Here is the input.
Amino acid sequence: MKKENNEELLRMLSSDLARLDAQYDDISPPSLPGLEQLIADEALRRQRQSRREFQRFLLVGLFLVSVVLFSLGFAPVTYWILQAAFPVAALGGLTVMRFRLRREDTEE
Amino acid sequence: MSDGTHDRIIRAQQGDASALAVLLRDHYAFLYKYLIKVTMDPSLAEELAQDTMVRCMEKIAAYNGASSFSSWLITIATRLYIDRKRRWKLEMQWKRQEEGVRSIRWRFESRNMEWSEVLDALSRLTSAQRMAVLLKHYYGYGYEEIADILQIPSGTAKSRVASGLNQLRKELSEDEEGE
Here is the structure.
């Protein structure tokens, strides 16, 4: 009974959706010159955007390199301490996490 | 996929703008009609069709032919619609949906055609359910394909189709009882 109901519902759904589709049979797609113009405009926009992003990347890179060189020149000790501190902190964190996981495993 | 379409896709991927334009024009009606049924809002469907075409221009080089070109367009359009819905506030969404359905209804009435209870009930489903029901029972996709298009697990796709159909059945029986 339920199967028949389902089939009836799906039949009605398909036929009404086809009627809905038919309402929009007369839509006109955009013209070819219009689409070609849109493609050209979009390509230009993307080109400009990627150029802007590349410039931003260069500026940030330049800033970081100058900060590194500046600190290396004026405070070499601090620079080398920081250079060593980050990997040590990361390795320490990983080790602690590993020990904690192992302890949880043995407790379970 | 016809040879003409395949040939155009290859030329478009190599940077031929006129091949891409023809490809997009040929698929526009299919895309627009899909979006009408998904959104139940002709003006939103038009906006999304435009956005889909722009996204397609950006991504055409990444199309690998794993699915048909029209399925690829449907996937892009669906994701754009989901993104847009996430950005909307709930009330705005409801208001816009109501306006969209009124506009489709007006199109039926202006052509002396009867607006159906099934379409009315379909418009009241959540868009997640409506998309799943449409993709399964109108476009004939399998649950795995629907899951891929909607970026959800296939079990969720299956349950959305089932709950959508249940909701449709419920709405229709309520309408019948109300008469």
Notes: The mean pLDDT of chain B is 89. Residues 154-178 of chain B form the longest helix (25 residues). Chain B touches chain A at residues 17-18, 20-22, 24-26, 28-29, 32-33, 36-37, 42, 53-54, 57-58, 104, 107-108, 111, 113, 116, 118-119, 122, 133-134, 137-138, 165, 168-169, 172 (CB under 8 Å). The radius of gyration of chain B is 18 Å.
